[in-house]
Design a protein that fits this description.
The protein has about 220 residues and is α/β, with parallel strands linked by helices. It is built from eight helices and seven strands. The radius of gyration is 18 Å and the shape is globular.
Length: about 220
């Protein structure tokens, strides 16, 4: 009697499959893509504005802005010089791959070097939904408090880079940088971290250098 051998394979969720399709589409165009996640008001759109202004004329940037309502963020990104598409989730607290898929249909990827997706402001749900972007970026900010990595481990564990924004407020807000960074280090050792202020511009250059080095890598690999 033949023995049955169990075969176990990871069954991808419908969202993961669509995220893979999004990635294939983005890769085929040689575009580097990032997913900005953060709590509401941490400074995602402010960082996008500063990034677009600094790289205008050098890097062609497309935006997908996710919000529950309004096109305020896409308007800000477009005013800064990006090609922007707004997604209104109508109540959902995160973007998913199908929303990004439909937004990709409205962007000419061949005309872009960098695609920035701004997720809905939320430190929980966005971490669970792959979109197909290359890197997940978490924007933390000083007034949120130094306990956030300790309280929202899922988000801090799953990101590829961390921006700590609003460092101009350090003199005014109690924030134990050591305690904060200790929490990050436990969850995500050696995480690429950028301390900056979108308000004063302090610390922006290392962030821009990191981003541009990834964009160059994407266009090189896209040419293969
Ligand atoms: N002091 C200070 N304020 C900042 C800085 N960056 C952003 N802000 C302010 O923080 C507020 C929120 O900034 P946004 O860029 O709209 O934040 P967001 O993460 O895009 O917000 P949502 O999309 O609503 O989740 C605005 O009033 C900004 O002017 C900074 O570096 N320092
Ligand atoms: Mg925003």
């Amino acid at each position: 009697m033949p023995k049955r051998i169990p075969v176990v394979e990871k069954i991808l969720s419908a969202n993961d499959r669509l995220a893979q399709e999004n990635r294939a589409r983005i890769d085929a165009a040689g575009v580097f893509s990032v997913n900005f996640m953060a709590s509401p008001g941490a400074g995602k759109t402010s960082l996008i504005e500063q990034t677009v202004k600094a790289l205008i004329g050098k890097v062609r940037i497309g935006m997908i802005n996710g919000d529950i309502a309004t096109s305020l963020d896409a308007d800000r990104a477009a005013a800064a010089g990006a090609t922007a598409v707004q997604i209104n989730t109508g109540g959902d607290c995160h973007l998913d791959a199908v929303m990004v898929q439909s937004a990709l249909g409205q962007l000419d990827l061949a005309q872009l070097d960098l695609l920035i997706v701004e997720n809905v402001g939320n430190l929980v749900c966005p971490a669970d939904f792959a979109l197909g972007t290359h890197k997940n970026i978490l924007v933390a900010s000083i007034p949120e408090g130094d306990d956030k990595p300790h309280k929202y481990p899922g988000m801090y564990r799953n990101v590829d880079a961390l921006v700590i924004n609003k460092i101009d407020l350090l003199p005014y807000v109690p924030f134990r940088m050591d305690f904060f960074r200790q929490g990050v280090e436990i969850l995500n050792p050696g995480l690429a971290t950028f301390l900056l202020s979108c308000r004063t511009g302090e610390g922006l250059q290392p962030w821009l250098d990191w981003l541009v080095s990834n964009v160059s890598g994407a266009s090189v690999s896209g040419a293969n």
